[in-house]
Design a protein that fits this description.
Helix content is 23%, strand content 20%. It is elongated. The protein contains three helices and four strands.
Length: 121
């Protein structure tokens, strides 16, 4: 058996870190607060909404932020610009709906159905 020659290696793999945006509720409940997080890998609406449902980080909790989006163990699905929430998350409060709308919009979705005069901060 002959030894193999030294094989040159290829470039090291690269890891793509992207930012995604989620929206939480201010401590007094009067407004939405935009938060940007780093995410390794592809960012799409499913990733953003799943991150939102995952809740606050320790830092966000210390800032007094809160969420009205209920947690779920069921998968959240997105098809194009349609977000399919598990039934155990329903019904949603007005602020929870706004959190979802603004998070989806900030991450590239076309959002329909927002009340007149409502803008994501």
């Amino acid at each position: 058996m002959q030894p193999t020659p030294v094989l040159p290696g290829s470039d090291a793999p690269t890891v793509s870190v992207r930012e995604l945006t989620v929206y939480f509720v201010s401590a007094d409940g009067s407004e939405l607060v935009r938060r940007t997080r780093s995410h390794t890998g592809m960012v799409d609406n499913t990733t953003a909404i799943t991150t939102l449902i995952g809740g606050l980080t320790d830092e966000e909790t210390k800032l007094g932020l809160r969420t009205e989006v209920p947690k779920t163990t069921q998968p959240v699905l997105t098809v194009s610009n349609l977000i399919l929430l598990p039934t155990d998350m329903l019904p949603l409060s007005k602020l929870a709906s706004f959190q979802l709308f603004c998070t989806a919009f900030a991450n590239g979705a076309t959002v329909n159905g927002l009340p007149d005069g409502f803008d994501c901060p």
